[in-house]
Amino acid sequence: MPATPARRKSPTIADVASTAGVSATTVSYVLGGRRGDLAASRISDATRERVMAAVDAIGYRVNEPARSLRRNRTDRVLLLMDRLSSPYEQHLAGMIEGVLEASGRSLSIVVCTTAARLDNALGMVRAGLADGAIVQCRDIAGQQHLLETYARERVPMVTISNSIEPNGFDVVCSDETPAIEEAVDHLVARGHRSIAFLAHAHDPEAPEARLAAVRHRLLHHGLTLADDLVWPGARDRTIAFASIRTMLGLPDPPTAVFSASDTGAISAIWAALSMGRQVPFDLAVVGCGNIDECLVTVPALSSAGPVQPDFTPIARLLIDRLDTPDYPKDRRLVLPWEFLPRQST
Amino acid sequence: MPATPARRKSPTIADVASTAGVSATTVSYVLGGRRGDLAASRISDATRERVMAAVDAIGYRVNEPARSLRRNRTDRVLLLMDRLSSPYEQHLAGMIEGVLEASGRSLSIVVCTTAARLDNALGMVRAGLADGAIVQCRDIAGQQHLLETYARERVPMVTISNSIEPNGFDVVCSDETPAIEEAVDHLVARGHRSIAFLAHAHDPEAPEARLAAVRHRLLHHGLTLADDLVWPGARDRTIAFASIRTMLGLPDPPTAVFSASDTGAISAIWAALSMGRQVPFDLAVVGCGNIDECLVTVPALSSAGPVQPDFTPIARLLIDRLDTPDYPKDRRLVLPWEFLPRQST
DNA sequence: ATGAAAGCGCTAACAT
DNA sequence: ATGTTAGCGCTTTCAT
């Protein structure tokens, strides 16, 4: 057997203890993760300083798997998202991380593009890699059962979705319908009769609540939204751009477009401009989400969305579950939406 | 309050063993993470099936911290990024995850907006939460020392940066200068003499290599790029949009703009359109990065960037380090850039 | 104010 | 082909 290069083992708590001339117990109390307060009542200042000096001297770093195994807790939270590339994800992650950090926890993000990956990521929590998860995956409606399974296995979860019911986990939803209806009323009041919809998926089978809301409200006005006016692109700026250009090239194009996302709507404005059309005169555009970019586009984008999106309560929902073993109740948090008419309509 | 949360304990390997009527060792071999091949030579099919049945029956799930502690390995990799919201991050994360998955590893993302957070995240690897890290943080130049420190502590790392030297870790850089110079030549050949630059930071102190390359090449043509032609916005679509509109409102605006990012360049095209200017006639625009969106804008965006960005070698660099304890050499991987002239210039 | 000792759940060297 | 056994590094009683 060839000589295995002796991997220098990193120092353990025992090394710190012997360097400082104290017991491992004392070192543990001095370093004690989130419960540092306990150490104060137990360890003298002189001892603590000696321990810290030893830590620095030998370059000790706690072994997290060992700590997690013993504590049966990680102080880490997973944020599961189906993509990264919109301003929304960045904002959400930043806000959640801030709250978690204040409670002594950290955040890791796992991208879950498929149901199998979502299953896998929740399995990671189940396996003790994190204490809980916040789930932000768009096509999660079909995953009600998956979430319930993990909830039964005592995985603390908060999901952000309008198409799922709390059942062992909390749900954060947006009260979108009134704002979307107001947007439709607004378009109709401005004389639009042929309104296209930019959808997240082109799949007519996939339920898209925003499309349903628009359809329903149009019906209320005696108007219909035909299937051939539903275009793909809400999820991708480039697809949206192409969709709108194709659409505007048709013989009798719609006079307005309602996009299920702001990024799609912004691409729509720009696609119209690129073909020499005037927004809102040749094409009126409404988006969803009210992202910051709405205000700086020209013309400014009318959008249905949360007015000042504050996602910190989402993190607090999860923290409540983490701090309360056998958290008793399911909660539903409703983030209010409004319609904000601007120059694009 | 009980010191240890009275969480109903989840089943362990011992429970599976007694249910299946075998020893814990056998269960361990059947479940053995990445080394499943070893199990084949040891466990009979009948036994394996009995074990798997027991696993399903009692809902067993491996305890990852315990496994990591024992194995001294996690099969997990951290991707550290300073932000999420551009198409680049999405693409990078997806490609890396694919390669890691094929080698039986998983990927978590940690957002590191500050040097302190980068330190903290690398500390997580050091603490045994992951086996290594891929670092994609723009302002990492000042962190050479930090990376060297962790490299000395045997943290396997690959960094993506043009302003850092490999030293105990690998560096992936882009050979940007020739492509950028070609872009400048192209603009000059088309008669542009007053060229603005859209920079990542507005801070004139922060070194921006792309700006330096543009400046240098302009000097070669006897032209200068004055400080008041450097505008902020490459990092943010909205800021870019505002910058260009302000710029075009000046008495004697530049006739071309070179953006350090494609997203900034796209916003520039759009800002020009919004003011009734024609691209490329009133304003020529060049971006950096060659993202997919370049091809679908109108006019299509000229861009200096990688032609078909393949980021999988980045993951392989790290895997080599993970698979080879005391990895001997530092490597530098150069991703070639080209200038791709399109309709925007 | 500090230490001794008993595991947390798992893996792997060493039996058999 | 399967079992025994000795820890991995840490936290937390309980004792002093």
Can you walk me through this structure?
Two copies of one chain form a homodimer. Chain A contains 14 helices and twelve strands. The first copy, chain A, is an alpha/beta fold. A six-stranded parallel sheet of chain A has the order 2-1-3-4-5-11, sandwiched between helices. Chain A has a six-stranded mixed sheet with strand order 7-6-8-9-10-12, sandwiched between helices. In chain A, α8 (144-152) links the parallel β3 and β4. In chain A, α11 (237-248) crosses α12. The longest helix of chain A is centred in the first third of the chain and has 16 residues, at 87-102. Chain A is elongated and about 85 Å long. The structure holds a DNA duplex (16 and 16 nucleotides).
Keywords, separated by commas or semicolons:
homodimer; 345 residues; alpha/beta; 6-stranded parallel sheet; 6-stranded mixed sheet; 12 strands; 16% strand; disordered N terminus; DNA-binding
